[in-house]
Automatic annotation (TrEMBL), chain A:
This is Carbon monoxide dehydrogenase. Keywords: Membrane, Transmembrane, Transmembrane helix. Pfam families: COXG (PF06240). The chain crosses the membrane at residues 183-204. It comes from Nocardioides daeguensis.
UniProtKB/TrEMBL annotation, chain B:
It comes from the Bacteria. NCBIfam families: CODH_aero_grp5 (NF040766). Residues 20-135 form the Aldehyde oxidase/xanthine dehydrogenase a/b hammerhead domain. The keyword Zinc-finger does not apply. This is Xanthine dehydrogenase family protein molybdopterin-binding subunit. SMART domains: Ald_Xan_dh_C. InterPro entries: Ald_Oxase/Xan_DH_a/b, Ald_Oxase/xanthine_DH-like, AldOxase/xan_DH_MoCoBD1, AldOxase/xan_DH_MoCoBD2. It comes from Nocardioides daeguensis. Keywords: Molybdenum. It holds the Pfam family MoCoBD_1.
Length: 208, 796
């Protein structure tokens, strides 16, 4: 299935590019993102808890960023699997400088499998768009107001393999300023993750 | 003789039970059984890199988790290719659990047995499978183009190419005064019985016996397959088919992976095990049908007489070919319907796709064949400016031409030779029923109201009652009750009623004293199954023959007891009497006498002890006789018997929205002698409902990656009672079959066959634009209007 859409963030493109590539931002802004682990250069493993109405669950997935063109765009390769389904997606994200704001467009080509492929697919497009909008809205807030304090202050944990692991902040933590190079990576991943999380997550949950 | 039951509108005796919810289905059996669930492929085409079941092993309540690695011997081999054919050069079947590769969404990968279905499904969620995705082949065009292959070792995705001809069609077309070519398409659909698949098995370690309950159309077929796969003797396996909530073809496939895995689990675990398919599983792991594309070349004379007909078609059989080529063979032969083209040539390719397998769905290739032939007839009429009924009439096989040999080989390997029929009489009836000759007045009246209506007609011939055989066993108890067993199964056809009518007539017993058992291998181990509209013809005939044998024996014993001649006896209401006298003996007593006893157990049996009966100078049971008042016989016809029918439908197509409304639906049907007209009409009603579904609603919406997008009743449209015509006008014609003792032909599938053809014709007639693909939705019709602007302008 193909999903495309665009959202505007009220910040200059450099700022958005930076923000969107920071795993800490991602963890804080992706709806339902519980954990993000760097597994290589521009490669992440993630856990996203997402759902639509009563259909909720946790997905494990991976995200690979390719073809990074600073301030212009990137390609995300996403994989996710949970009990009710699987997703394999390629998402093209482009950034457009629009004066005070940045317009992000995404174009996803997703293969959705399992129960979600057959039962929920017709709902996924609208759900995905809604969650993408929520994500970009969160990013905008972080750029404007900074990261939640708990996230900003915390050093990433280290996984068994030595990779940094970013955990989501407790809900309602106060925002604080943050930025930096890795921050940027984060938000880009976010766009893809949201799609992945949404698409996959939408169908999550237990069968029946 | 009491009232003759054959031909009477006897109310179905099974309905009291079924309608009140006291039917007993597979899922009702063994309520304490362990439950199985199956991990199914989320991908249409993928290599399985690894399967990790570690996380399931210590889940509380899980008793077994298997992948292909856990299967041994015959169980680890591919499932049987049930119907091999010389032209099926590249037949492939799946494994009970996928080995290395999956070829459609829904293919079974792992099998879990747990305390209940909840635990079993939770366990499935913990199994981690790593896949390497492969390109999916979806749809006939993709299969034909063969840019990607479903099976690496099947070039061009072609499992079979088959060709048949009668005469030189190409030459006849070349020489014909008029020619046309058409491209016609039918989409995928599925039967959707209310009850999905289901299997329960119990292993009895004390007897070393396996008992299997399964929702199937062939209990003997399942029995043979289970025994072969589990390495058991046939005599160790009993298969029982209780009430079945609809079959429609999908349940003729056997063994399903679960039909083997459940018995194996019961044997290994020593516990009863149950699998009950859920609806989504039915969509993605049972079977579909119908998808075909056809190209027609036809040559005809000024009267519309078909001189040469050449049909090339492509059949999408899904990922595997367990049921062989039955569906396309039926299309290629039954396409001819009631007509006799001067020459005919047909060739089809049966193609692999990464979608669910295809097996016969009520009608089984005939709806497509009928669609192709009837669209061709309509096209000829349009080309010549002739009445559509007249063009059909000049092509009919005439009543004095039977038996009529179409010069082809049918799906049973026998000649396509029609036994009887009267198509001109049938056409006269359908024209009258739908008021064909005055339709233009009706159209004009509707047009004056700003409405657009159309009339369609479709004719078909249906080979029914295919062999090889069915059998029956009739046993008259000492109580006078009659117990009858036949091996094929029942899925709601009213066998209890129809078969009891046959027995009551032949034996002269009361209808309510007859009890029919079907689909239980303990009672009748030799049987074939319920498909191809064959139960009434095959088992009905076998039951008639077995009852006749039983009657002969009863009369022989009664003649002895009554000291009368057999020819002077009659049986009425279960009592044998000497005609015109009051000398009589109940059949129950005859049953007592038929079994010489040493030991009495009640008053009646005292009469049969050896001091009371028999000639003391002869053996109590004669050399050529056996004890008991029983009869067994089998019916095996030389070939199929050919039923026929014609449907006409009047539709209104909404001028604004393109909504298609059915104003009138008429059916003329000939299935030879009717056993029970009420049951036949019920079959027609059900068939027409499925025909409406196939023509206007049902389709399998696969995306290009092989995901079925409408795998639920939220998205897969089926007609409700609101979409089926409130009244279906039915008229019968009875041209008896000469091939069986009762002169009957099958009726089960008939109603569905001409649906798409008749609706396409009616919509075309209303809209004046060619309808070449079915099913058709209002949106599609709306779009067609846009691409055929002339009509839109004309109507303005």
């Amino acid at each position: 299935m193909k999903i495309s859409g665009q959202n505007a963030i009220a910040a200059p493109v450099d700022k958005v590019w930076e923000a969107i590539l920071d795993p800490r931002v991602l963890v804080a802004t992706i709806p339902g993102c519980e954990q993000l682990e760097a597994t290589g250069e521009n490669a992440y493993a993630m856990t996203v808890s997402a759902g639509v109405a009563a259909i909720k669950g946790t997905y494990s997935g991976s995200c690979l960023l390719q073809d990074l063109r600073h301030g212009e765009g990137l390609t995300m390769k996403l994989k996710g699997a949970g009990a009710p389904g699987t997703i394999d997606a390629t998402v093209l994200v482009s950034f457009k400088d629009d004066g005070a704001q940045t317009v992000l467009s995404y174009d996803a080509d997703a293969v959705v499998g399992g129960m979600i492929g057959g039962v929920g697919q017709r709902m996924l497009t609208s759900v995905s768009r809604r969650m993408a909008a929520e994500f970009f809205g969160n990013v905008e807030k972080v750029i404007a107001g900074g990261l939640p304090a708990a996230v900003a202050a915390a050093e990433p944990a280290v996984s068994a393999e030595g990779a940094p692991v970013y955990a989501a902040a407790p809900k309602a933590a106060a925002p604080s300023a943050a930025g930096g190079e890795s921050f940027l990576l984060g938000v880009a991943v976010g766009g893809g993750l949201v799609l992945a999380g949404v698409i996959v997550g939408g169908l999550l949950g237990r069968r029946r | 003789m009491t009232t003759k039951m054959m031909g009477a509108k006897v109310q179905r005796v099974e309905d009291d039970r079924l309608v009140r919810g006291t039917g007993r289905y597979v899922d009702d059996v063994a309520p304490d059984a362990l439950h199985a669930a199956v991990l199914r492929s989320p991908h249409a085409h993928a290599r399985i890199v690894s399967i990790d079941v570690d996380a399931v092993l210590d889940v509380e309540g899980v008793h077994a988790v298997w992948t292909h690695e856990d299967l041994e011997g015959a169980m680890a081999e591919p499932l049987p290719l049930l119907i091999p054919h010389p032209t099926l050069t590249h037949g492939r079947t799946q494994y009970a659990l996928a080995k290395d590769e999956v070829n459609h969404v829904g293919e079974a990968i792992a099998f879990v047995v747990a305390d209940d279905r909840y635990v079993a499904e939770d366990a499935l969620a913990r199994i981690v499978v790593e896949y390497e995705l492969l390109p999916a082949v979806v749809g006939i065009e993709a299969a034909r183009t063969a840019t990607h292959l479903v099976h690496d070792d099947v070039p061009g995705n072609v499992a079979a190419r088959m060709e048949q001809s009668n005469g030189d069609a190409a030459a006849a077309i070349a020489a014909a005064p008029h020619t046309l070519s058409l491209d016609l398409k039918i989409e995928r659909s599925a039967c959707m019985p209310m009850e999905g698949r289901g299997t329960v098995a119990r292993w009895d370690p004390d007897q070393n016996r396996l008992q299997v309950w399964t929702s199937t159309q062939t209990s003997t077929g399942v029995r043979a397959a289970v025994a072969a796969k589990l390495g058991l003797d046939l005599g160790q396996v009993d298969v029982i088919t209780p009430d079945v909530g609809g079959g429609f073809g999908v349940k003729i496939v056997h063994p399903w992976p679960e039909e083997l895995l459940v018995p194996l689990a019961a044997q290994r675990l020593g516990r009863a095990v149950k699998f009950t398919e859920d609806r989504r599983e039915h969509f993605i792991s049972s079977a579909h049908e119908r998808a075909q594309m056809h190209h027609v070349e036809v040559g005809f004379d000024d009267e519309g007489r078909v001189l040469g007909l050449d049909v090339r078609f492509w059949h999408d059989h899904g990922a595997y070919t367990p049921y062989g080529l039955i569906v396309p063979i039926i299309t290629s032969t039954q396409l001819l319907g009631p007509y006799k083209p001067g020459a005919y040539h047909v060739q089809f390719d049966s193609l692999y796709t990464n979608t669910v397998i295809v097996t016969p769905y009520r009608g089984a290739g005939r709806p497509q064949g009928c669609f192709v032939m009837e669209r061709t007839m309509d096209a000829i009429a349009a080309e010549l400016g002739k009445d559509r009924a007249d063009v059909r009439a000049v092509n009919f096989i005439q009543p004095d031409e039977f038996p009529y040999d179409q010069g082809l080989i049918f799906q049973d390997g026998r000649e396509l030779k029609y036994d009887s029929g009267d198509y001109p009489a049938m056409l006269a009836k359908i024209k009258e029923l739908v008021d064909w000759d005055h339709f233009e007045d009706f159209r004009a009246a509707k047009a004056a109201e700003g409405k657009r209506v159309g009339l369609g007609l479709a004719c078909y011939v249906e080979g029914t009652g295919v062999g090889p055989y069915e059998g029956a066993h009739v046993h008259i108890e000492t109580s006078g009750k009659v117990k009858v067993a036949t091996g094929l199964t029942s899925q709601g056809q009213g066998h209890q009623t129809a078969f009891a009518q046959i027995v009551a007539d032949e034996l002269g017993v009361r209808f309510e004293d007859v009890e029919i058992t079907t689909g239980d291998t303990r009672r009748m181990p030799y049987a074939v199954g319920t498909f191809a509209s064959r139960a009434a013809v095959m088992s009905g005939s076998a039951i008639h023959l077995a009852a006749k044998r039983t009657k002969e024996k009863a009369l022989r014993i009664a003649a002895d007891a009554l000291e009368a001649d057999v020819d002077d006896l009659e049986i009425v209401d279960g009592v044998v009497s000497v005609k015109g006298t009051d000398s009589s003996i109940p059949l129950g007593t005859v049953a007592v006498l038929s079994n010489p006893l040493r030991y009495a157990f009640d008053e009646a049996s005292k009469a049969a002890t050896q001091f009371n009966v028999g000639d003391p100078t002869k053996p109590p049971v004669a050399e050529d006789d056996e004890p008991g008042l029983e009869g067994k016989d089998f019916y095996s016809p030389p070939r199929s018997t050919f039923a026929s029918g014609m449907h006409a439908v009047i539709v209104e197509t909404d001028v604004e929205t393109a909504e298609i409304r059915i104003l009138k639906y008429a059916v003329v049907h000939d299935c030879g002698h009717l056993i029970n007209p009420m049951i036949v009409e019920g079959q027609i009603h059900g068939g027409v409902a499925q025909g409406v579904g196939g023509a206007l609603y049902e389709r399998m919406a696969y995306d290009e990656s092989g995901q079925l997008l409408n795998a639920s009743f939220m998205d897969f449209l089926m007609p409700y009672v609101t979409e089926v015509p409130a009244s279906i006008e039915i008229d019968h014609l009875e041209t008896p079959s000469p091939l069986n003792p009762l002169g009957i032909k099958g009726a089960g599938e008939a109603g569905v066959i001409p649906g798409s053809a008749a609706f396409a014709a009616a919509i075309e007639d209303a809209e004046r634009l060619p309808i070449t693909a079915m099913p058709i939705s209002p949106s599609e019709l709306f779009a067609l209007r846009a691409t055929h602007a002339p009509h839109a302008q004309e109507s303005k």
